Fold:
Amino acid sequence: MNEITPTAEIDNAIASISGGAMDKEEIIFLYDRLMSLKQAAAETLDRMKGAMIAWIELNGSIEIGDVRYYAAVEKKTKPRNPNMAEFYKAVLMAVGGDEEAFASSLASNAFKHGQLRKLLAEIHGDEQGEIQYGLLFETIEESKLAEGKPIKKLQVMDKKFLR
Structure:
């Protein structure tokens, strides 16, 4: 007996395309329908993840088989000043005009925040360097749904790394 799946109708239609039984308009209609379903599923999944995060923050992680879902913190570091010309001048001033040091802090998004933090600490000392870094960057934390192996204790052990 064949199992009926939520996509059975679409699977049958796709088989009709392969067999040459659909015309161009029907293919376009099916593709548009599938893209709409994909968008709706993505939006529904985002809402589900948000609801799971809220539930997990109140009740603790959820284990489904070998997978543990937990609320994790996602950190993003970005320049405090989005005006790159002004940011460039501030960084160049922070490294004392040293263009080599400045160039070593660049990345595809313009600046390697970790490299710049290190340079500022080397140039100004740890405390003053951290102050300079804090003036240039901010770290934003947001909750996200994460997956991982279930843990029975306080420590995490991933079997992939055992010998």
